[in-house]
Amino acid sequence: MDFDQLYKEQFPVVYRYLTGLCGNQALAEELTQETFCRAIEHSASCYCSRHHGNTLKVLEAMAGEGQAALIDVTTRRTVRLEGYDCIGFASGIYYGKFQESVLAFARQYLPRGKPVFFVCTYGGAKGAGAKALSKIAEEKGYPVLGEFGCRGCDTFGPFKLVGGIAKGHPDAQDMEKARRFFHQIQDRLS
Ligand SMILES: Cc1cc2nc3c(=O)[nH]c(=O)nc-3n(C[C@H](O)[C@H](O)[C@H](O)COP(=O)(O)O)c2cc1C
């Protein structure tokens, strides 16, 4: 039986089961989708990309290279990350840092011993943006596989007056570098 057929036949069964368990149809649908995605996806990237979707563009380029789940931490209510081989945490850099909700997600949901990687986009400089995440990783004993960063169009505050900085980024070259990074992560896991 191929995956499409399995999905078509078993989705209602799993959905009914989970609705009975949690008593919430919206949550049950989310969990059912996650169950099936988990069967084919190897990595998950938990992200916040609220300014221009720059970070999401980079993650989508990476996800196109392999089976990767993209989890928006600002809308996802709950998640189980145990089944993935590695977990990415990704964000635009806001005031020199990764968005707090990404850090909170890492603290709450990252299972012990799971390899992680970090992705960020920034208007000017990433600075020490991933430092807080690295600290969480270290405290929980996660191996950090790598970190990818590139510039992303920034129209925040005064930059809006000049039409933004890092215009056009992430561009094709950034995307290509992101794909290469993702392959390196996969190679390190195999
Ligand atoms: C509120 C805010 C604060 C920002 N702070 C910084 C910063 O400290 N350093 C920097 O280089 N870029 C900063 N930026 C620019 C973003 O990091 C950049 O545009 C990034 O690509 C946004 O990613 P996103 O579109 O995925 O949210 C800031 C943008 C916003 C909206």
* Strand percentage: 15-25%
How many beta-strand runs? 6
CATH class of the largest domain, please? Alpha Beta
Q: Judging from the principal axes of the Cα atoms, what is the shape?
A: globular
Which parts are unreliable, with pLDDT below 50 for 5 consecutive residues or more? none
List all distinct small molecules, including ions and cofactors, that are bound in this structure. flavin mononucleotide
Q: What is the count of helical runs?
A: 6
Query: How is the biggest beta sheet arranged?
Result: 6 strands, mixed
Helix/strand class: alpha/beta
Query: What is the helix/strand order?
Result: HHEHEEEHEHEH
Query: What is the CATH superfamily of the largest domain?
Result: Flavodoxin domain
Cα-to-Cα separation, first versus last residue = 27 Å
- Please tell me the total number of domains: 2
Rg for CA atoms: 18 Å
Per CATH, what is the topology of the largest domain? Rossmann fold
The average pLDDT is 91
Polypeptide structure, described:
It contains 6 helices and 6 strands; from the N terminus they run ααβαβββαβαβα. The longest helix has 20 residues, at 3-22. The chain folds into 2 domains: 1-40; 42-189, 3-Layer(aba) Sandwich (Rossmann fold). The model has no long low-confidence stretch (mean pLDDT 91). Helix 3 (54-63) packs across helix 6 (172-189). The protein has 190 residues and is α/β, with parallel strands linked by helices. Residues 49-56, 92-96, 121-125, 152-154, 156 line the site of flavin mononucleotide (FMN).
